[in-house]
Amino acid sequence: MKIAVVAPSCSLHPEAAEAVKAIVASRGDAEIFIHEQCFASAGHFAGPDEQRLAALRDMMADPGVDAVWFARGGYGSNRIAEAAARDLPAAARGKTYLGYSDAGFLLVAFDKAGLSVAHGPMAQDVLRPGGEAAIHRALDWLVKRDPGSLEPGLKPGARALAFNLTVLSNLLGTAIEPNFDGADLLIEDVAEHDYRIDRMMFHVTGSAAVQRCGSIRMGRISEIPDNDRLFGSDATSIVRDWCGRAGIAFGGSADIGHDAANRVVPFDLARD
Amino acid sequence: MKIAVVAPSCSLHPEAAEAVKAIVASRGDAEIFIHEQCFASAGHFAGPDEQRLAALRDMMADPGVDAVWFARGGYGSNRIAEAAARDLPAAARGKTYLGYSDAGFLLVAFDKAGLSVAHGPMAQDVLRPGGEAAIHRALDWLVKRDPGSLEPGLKPGARALAFNLTVLSNLLGTAIEPNFDGADLLIEDVAEHDYRIDRMMFHVTGSAAVQRCGSIRMGRISEIPDNDRLFGSDATSIVRDWCGRAGIAFGGSADIGHDAANRVVPFDLARD
Fold first, then answer.
1. Full-model pTM
2. Which of B170, B171, B230 shows the shortest C-beta gap to A43?
């Protein structure tokens, strides 16, 4: 099992790379290749679009690579998502693609192209408090398909989609919008004001495509900055309220979020 | 000419109300009624949804009111926009509705319902540096249809749509999404990071509906917070780049923004 790490958004901390390599070495059940593009830098991004795309496409086309693991989020994978999913090399199929947050743009584009994707921990999560557990959970899924890595509410055979709410809001209506029909839709977010959560829930639940999902489940919405006045409602009430307005079933909580406890959500468990 | 001010988003500063009343009195060409709902407060909002909606609907239904002027932006008009535009009383027609920023949710819902709307200064703009000029510009449009109030690039007979970019991004795909076909689409924003501008431009220009607009013109994108690292591109390059990717004509600059120089953009000049 060979796992390749690329950074389609922002660059990976070298410290995180070392820590992840040490964990992989200590387990002895996988080989990890951290692409040097992970440490490139061009403004906000881990190198220009062309460089990030080329590194990703190289790993997708490499028949020796079993899984492509996204280094971290930030912002930028949307800029290369359509191109990355186009004219897929044969070797791109049969791999797993794992990440979350900004990497959601890639997950959805790849899922749409028939690739096997999962929403779950990324390499840089090792730097979070308790982050080693996140890395083991990711590796347990990639290497062993350990059911213990999975978000516990997933139903075998049912389609699931997991997203950062901001990412989901920003991909609706674009070429990479997925088919939500009947899916278990899980959302999470970090560092967004209550009023932004409310506005995005208006947007997301106002989509006729999203309204066809089976239900919305709410992961952790964390590190909410203080509103300049008290917003008057909390994130759970906001999510529940907009689901109610849109006639979407609110399915309760989901064990995902920007933290070390973030569980794995394969979009298509049947495909895995 | 009677102008009614309501606050469908956040509450109006009493100081702004007094200053606007003084300007109107000094002009002597209009009467202004500042609805008491403007000073209501419920969490983030100028009163609960029901109260904001009722005040707005009352003014829409009042045959003695010639124009409904939105007090200010903030956040919240999306929560009542659909309901406000439903089952319109006869008196709602023949009035002008003026505002921008968060009020864009109402402008677009009302325009879709056949009402006469314009993107332009709001009452609370009087508190900006040079804000009196913004108030006179708004009044000159409402009272006299002064062409000097208009955004100078507007073409007679051509349809225009003006939006805060964040508002536009969050209404795409909802029930209030407008018809963009052939329109001159003007955007502006305030206090959003470069990476958010980039992500929203990805989203907006990725919409097949938006791609049918005539061109995108760029108003002022102001008070951009510092990125944690230099983003690597400025707002003009970002807007121009995404227009290019999407095959949308970039029409240059537009004289709108979150400032006292903000000019008036009627969505349908022919209707006025």
1. 0.97
2. B230
